[in-house]
Structure formats: structure tokens, C-alpha cells
Amino acid sequence: MNSPKEAAAPASNFLRHIVERDLEAGTYAARTFAGTPGDAAHHAGAPPDPARIRTRFPPEPNGYLHIGHAKSITLNFGLAQEYGGICHLRFDDTNPEKEEQEFVDAIIDEVRWLGFDWHALEPALDGEPTSHLYFASDYFDFMYRAAEALVQAGLAYVDEQSADEIRAHRGDFGTPGTNSPFRDRTPAENLARLRQMKAGEFDDGAAVLRARLDMASPNINLRDPVIYRIKRATHHNTGDRWCIYPMYAYAHPIEDALENITHSICTLEFEDQRPWYDWLLDKLCELGLLAQPRPHQYEFARLNVTYVITSKRKLRQLVDERIVAGWDDPRMPTIAGLRRRGYTPESLRLMCERAGTSKAGGWTEYASLDAALRDDLDPKAPRAMAVLDPVELRLANWAGLFGSEAHREACHAPVHPQRPELGERRFALGPRLWIERDDFAEVPAKGFFRLFAGNRVRLKYGYVIECTGCEKDASGRVAAVLATVVPDTKSGTPGADAVKVKGTITWVGADDCARAEVRLYDRLFTEAQPDAGGKDFKASLNPESLRVVSGYVEAALAGAGADVRFQIERHGYFVTERHDHAPGRPVLNRIAPLRETWTSK
Ligand code: ATP
Ligand code: MG
User: Fold this and answer.
1) pLDDT per residue over 510-523, tens digit each?
2) Which of 163, 242, 372, 471 is deepest in the core (most CB within 10 A)?
3) Ligand 2 centroid, distance to 59 Cα (angstroms)
4) In this structure, how many other beta carbons lie within 10 angstroms of the beta carbon of residue 241?
5) Closest Cα partner for 391 from 481, 296, 515?
6) Which residue from 15, 55, 57, 69 has its CB within 8 A of the most atoms of ligand 1, so it is best to mutate?
7) CA-to-CA distance for 523 and 529, rounded, in angstroms?
8) 71 CB under 6 A from ligand 1?
9) Measured from the CB, is residue 271 less than 6 Å from ligand 1?
10) Per residue in 351-364, pLDDT tens?
11) pTM for this prediction
12) Ligand nearest to C-alpha 98
């Protein structure tokens, strides 16, 4: 496993090479940028673009972001940061029916939480940071103008075939398509019809605008792709202004070009769209609507993580069928869920960086996310003690040794063992405490060094004790473990090393702790690839993905605010629950155990 230090120096990848090549060659040096996206005319006379490169993260606001989006965010914002560029956050909101403000707000919040910012200082402007938050729908006017220009140049036509006819005439891998009977109308006829479409003179679905390329192309994406359709739907941004909407594949390249994007990075499924991306932007440059140098598209393999599903449809199913408690259920692979679970932005970014960027694909182990979390938190998380499966421990010789049952021995421990500057935690040891039930055995197995009658262990940061036996309840279950304190063995005192023990156990004082609800999360699925090959992902739900226990935590932890992370000794990394925790009424989520314990069933 990489150390955090190694991870800080990013491994190179093909995208970094491309960016470096373009910077060296000055590919984008001639760009101008006038601050807000505009067309070629808008750019005329504008100052040079101060950003050496521009990338973008272009979510469609039709769902919550997930771990795969974290990869895309980290990649796009990360490249811009590394190479003195700017990354735009752009909502690809060209599909009015599925998009909602709720998702826009959540995405903005989550990108920011991941540690990225779309505000940038643009020296060519007025010195104020510029916001590079954009909506594709803000470009609808330009997109429509570009469509008219394509029609006038004979490069697009209105097709009045039905959707079924269009599909049937498109052909398939082995069969070339056939031309639409409407393909050879004059530009004037097409322009008139496009304007009628826009004016609402056609019914939904009665006509579409198609680019005029090649119905026999081996690349089906080039067989006269549809670029506008009629859809009477209210858009979250433009309301009822439009009854025609651009198709994603037409809109996206134009969005990139208007924003002066240099490297348009997407996942591999768009590889076959690249010739169309290039064709469209080159034509619009030739027609004088856009300026060279124009953006270029590069594809990389999407992030796949084991034990996780990322299909928006299936994630929605988990929520709708109440298999999980909501989009931010700590078992969900959504950014909202991972955040609530307690993963840090640093750990997500580290995992994405370590997963690498290539065209090859493959699967990233879920365990690598936990490893990244440990690497992030180990050097910084305060330590705490807690008992998650408590049984009482009674120290019989307490009053005899210290003069009274009421006496408390002050114990202390570092907040962090390697960081003395963080100070100390204090807690009180008394005659009654809580320990883990499995730290006691009536009949010890071979190699068990903790509590059994006649054995000595150290109470961490406290005394060595000697076990004398246990008490049981009517059902025969151990109700209390009994022990005596071995005098003069307190940690940090000269006598501490006089008695050697093989085991040390964690504990909390019965009157110096708080009862806590502890949510022990595990993977949501028992299969590494829950939905591979069309499998029913609901068949491999892990029945133990959430176990809620009632434990005891040391006072310092109980007093913390919400959303604070701790390493609980021996148990792992925990966070005080974002919504349900309150000081004095602790609720904790386990983020990850201290080491990898998962074994596939
Ligand atoms: P949809 O099917 O709704 O388009 P999507 O996952 O592509 O789903 P978008 O909102 O379009 O969602 O994605 C925004 C960006 O995130 C896109 O550039 C997309 O390529 C990228 N992205 C999505 N999933 C992954 C993934 N698993 N790994 C890397 N990038 C991803
Ligand atoms: Mg998409």
C-alpha cells in the first residue's frame, strides 16, 4: 500500500501527458476569453485567456452524485489545479423532464465539500474572482442560432418521419442506414420548418432536426444524428420559453466551445461520439460561429468500485424501496452517503488518485477507500476509548487499597500518540467500569491473554489487575467480571514495569462515560460485483450492513460536536453522526475498522 507521502506525488497518466504536450506546443495559446461564455463575435477583441487549460465537470442534475462522479471531479478539478488552469462546474441541463433544483443544490454542496472551487482569479479581468458555474440551458439561444446556421449551410434538415421510422432507417452494425425521404429538401424549406418547430406549430414528436452527415457511415453516431426534438415540458431554468430542446450530443460540444474548454474529459462510452464532436465544432468554426482553437474530447475508463453499484436508476430503487434510509444513508455510495458515513474529502480524493486514470478500466477494491481513510485519519484523528459490547468489571479491593469506594484515580492519555501538542485526555478510574464482553473468558482458549481467573492484564492507561472470576445471571450469562487491583502498577509511575503482563484491555469508567448509540456499518452487498452481467443486485444485499449497538464512550467523545472523527482504540474510525448526534447524547457511525476484516462470503 502506498504511504500518503508517495500518493502526494501523483503518478502520471495519459491525460497529464496530453495536457503537458499541449502546453508545450502552445496549442491553446491563441484563445481569447471575455469572462462569460460567448460566441466568436463575443470573443473578437477580447484579451487572451489567462487560464492555461480549462476543464469542466458536467453533471446532469437528475440525481445525487456518487463515488464515480468523485473520480471525474477529482480528475477535472485536479488537472486544472496542477497545470494553472480553471475547472468549470457546468450543469448539463438539456433534458427538462428529469432535472430538479434539489439536485443542483446538492451537487454544488458536494463539489465544494470535496474541496474544489469554480471561482478563479482571472488577471485579464478586474481582479475579482470569477464564478465559473454554468448552466447548459443558458446557451439555448446560441444553440438554436447554430442550428439555423447548419440548416442554411445545408448541413441539417427537418425530418418528419416518426421515431420508429427513423430508428428503422438507421440500420445497425452490419447494415448501412437509408436516407430519409425528407433529407433533400432545400435549406430554405428546412429553415421555414425549423422555425415552425420552434414556434410550436408541430406536435411533440412530429418532427426532429437532424444533422446531415452520412447514413452509410460505419459509425452509427454519424448517421444523421438528431440534434433537436420537440418536447413541451417546463424547464427548471428556462420555464416554458422553449418547446424544442437540443439533444445532449449536440449541446455538449457547443457548451465546451462556448466556455473555452481545452480538454473535454469524459468516460469511454463517448469514444464513438468523438468524430461527431469534432465534426460539429469544426463546422461551427467554419461558419464563423465559434473560434479556433476549439476544445478536444478525451476519454478514460470509468471508476468501478467493488461491492458498490453506481447506476442512478438502481440507487434510486434502493431509496424508493426503502432498502436504505435515503440518498444519504451511510451505506450508499453517493457522496452524501459517504460524507455522512464519515469518509473525509481527503480520503475520497486519495482513493481516486490511487485508482489511477487510464483507458483500460477494471475494478478498484472497496478496501482501497478504507485504506485511504486510515492513511488520512491515522495522523490526525484524536484517540478515544469506548466499549461496544459492554460487561461490568468490578475491582474488589478498591476501598481497601484507596480508602473508599468513592475514590477516583485520575488517568490520562495523549489525544494523539505521535502529536503531544494536541494535549491529553483525562478520565477517572473507579471500582466499577465497563469492558468488552469478549475480553473475558471463563475457559480461555490457547493464546488468549486477556481476562480469565488467575490472569493479569493492564487496564490501558491505568493499573494492572488480576482476574478472580465472574458472576452470572439466572440464564447463565456473565453479568460481571471480578478482579483486584495490583498495587503500585499505575501506568506512568515507577512501579508500572515491575509486573509484566501479556494483555492490555480498553475500558471506560462506569461513572465517567456516556451511553452511546453506535451504528456499525458494513458493505451493502456481499458480492463484489452486485449488478454485473444483469444480475439482480437485491439478491446479494448484506443483512449485516447495519448493526446498531448500545455502548459506552469516554466523556471527551460524548462531549464532542457533530461530524467529528475519532479513532476509537481497537475498534476503528468513527464519526459523531452529522444529524443525530448531540453533545451528551452521542450517536456514532463506524466509518471503517482499524484493519481490513472483510472476507467475501
Ligand atoms: P447518466 O446516465 O444520468 O448520464 P452519469 O453517471 O453519466 O449518468 P452525469 O451526471 O452525466 O451522470 O455525469 C457527470 C460526469 O461524471 C460525466 O462526465 C460522467 O462521464 C462522469 N462519471 C459518471 N460516472 C462515472 C464513473 N463511474 N467514473 C468516472 N466518471 C464518471
Ligand atoms: Mg452522463
Assistant:
1) 999 999 999 999 99
2) 372
3) 7
4) 11
5) 481
6) 69
7) 12
8) yes
9) no
10) 999 999 999 988 99
11) 0.93
12) 1
